[in-house]
Design goal:
about 40% helix; alpha/beta; binds zinc ion
Length: about 375
């Protein structure tokens, strides 16, 4: 809650700043925006239980259809990390002014639209775009591409890995970061009314676990509990470190069945079983890059089939993690249809049934993305 005293103090700071550097300057406007955003950082929490939140608003989870659980429709790895809170009104798109980044990666609207339209044409329903802070998330571009394609798009939130953290990350408190994520989910992201439907991909690089990444994990988990949103992790720490990360998330009062472990499928089955037994979703992703077919995808098919045959179908998620030009069809990659065209036929050839494939491509993402009731008070005391 923001008190009256705080508001008065912020108003005063704003006036002093504007007076000091001249009303109407870009800097003053930026600071004003930041302070106003902070002042309203604790909006009432809506109960979104039983809904999936897309960029176009809440929908019935049964409307999702075939779902890709971890993609990037627009992304620019070369962009400078944003400040906290992130600036508003910038776009990742080539030709946009002001642009956020240098136009590398996936920054052409028509090109990305054509690629995701291929997924729509073969019966695709929903794409989860886990681009977040540090990865040039662009809410307005996502809404536009959702409308143009007819696909549901679910947008991410939170912070990517430490290399792309904002320069002021160390100075920010868990409470500040939590408030930003809660606002993205309940009000809208980056000054828009376009809401995030999943928190992530939350960057965890580890080796060793790093203070700012743990702070980001804790804030994301807290925001997940407060809003009822699901979480998805960019899991690049060691196996033991990822177990620690799951302990931290659980300590913030989040059920681990609400957590997707990105970039994790294909690891050794003993580790995957430990994860399955904790209740998380394990995601096989990053596939379909040119030149095709990479041997890694053959191994992936075997690994997915092994998890299914071990009885863990309900914890399996699949995605391409399209994030490079080499993954686009126009450049010889598999695009957003590689799973449908290569991986699923590969699974069928190994005896996996159509019904099991439907569970993986439709039912599992639906369970993963459906909000639960918000819990504003923690059920479990957070660890210090
Ligand atoms: Zn990732």
């Amino acid at each position: 809650m923001t008190t009256r005293v705080n508001r008065d103090r912020e108003d005063c700071i704003v006036k002093r700043l504007i007076g000091g550097i001249g009303a109407g300057t870009m800097l003053a406007t930026g600071i004003l925006t930041t302070l106003l955003a902070q002042r309203t950082a604790t909006p009432p929490i809506p109960n979104l239980a039983g809904k999936v939140i897309t960029v176009a608003g809440p929908i019935d989870p049964f409307a999702l259809g075939v779902t890709l659980s971890h993609e990037h429709i627009f992304i620019d790895f070369s962009a400078p990390p944003p400040m906290v809170p992130p600036v508003t009104g910038v776009s990742v798109l080539k030709g946009a002014r002001p642009a956020n980044g240098r136009g590398a990666g996936l920054t052409d609207f028509d090109e990305s639209l054509a690629e995701i339209n291929d997924f729509k044409k073969i019966g695709g329903g929903t794409i989860v775009d886990v681009t977040n802070f540090g990865l040039t998330r662009d809410p307005e571009a996502l809404l536009r591409v959702s409308k143009a394609s007819g696909l549901n798009v679910v947008m991410g939130a939170g912070w990517y890995q430490k290399a792309l953290h904002p320069p002021d990350m160390a100075e920010r408190t868990i409470e500040e970061l939590t408030a930003i994520v809660v606002r993205d989910v309940t009000v809208g992201a980056q000054g828009t009314s376009i809401r995030s439907g999943i928190i992530g991909e939350v960057g965890v690089n580890g080796k060793p676990l790093e203070a700012n990444e743990i702070k980001s994990v804790r804030a994301s988990a807290r925001a997940a509990r407060i809003t009822g949103a699901p979480m998805i992790l960019h899991s690049f720490a060691t196996n033991d470190e990822m177990m620690t990360v799951l302990d931290i998330i659980a300590s913030e009062g989040v059920e681990l069945s609400r957590v997707v472990m990105g970039h994790t499928g294909g690891k050794d089955m003993e580790y995957l079983k430990r994860l399955f037994q904790r209740g998380v979703f394990v995601e096989w992703d990053y596939m379909g890059q040119a030149p095709l077919p990479p041997a890694a995808d053959t191994q992936r098919i075997e690994s997915i089939a092994a998890a299914i045959n071990a009885g863990y179908t309900d914890h399996v998620l699949l995605a391409h993690d399209v994030c490079t030009q080499a993954q686009l069809k126009r450049n010889g990659g598999g695009g957003y249809t590689y799973i449908s065209n290569v991986i699923l036929p590969g699974l069928k050839a190994k005896g996996i049934s159509d019904e099991t494939i439907r569970r993986i491509m439709v039912d599992n993402p639906r369970r993963a993305l459906t909000f639960v009731a918000p819990q504003v008070a923690a059920q479990t005391a957070p660890k210090p």
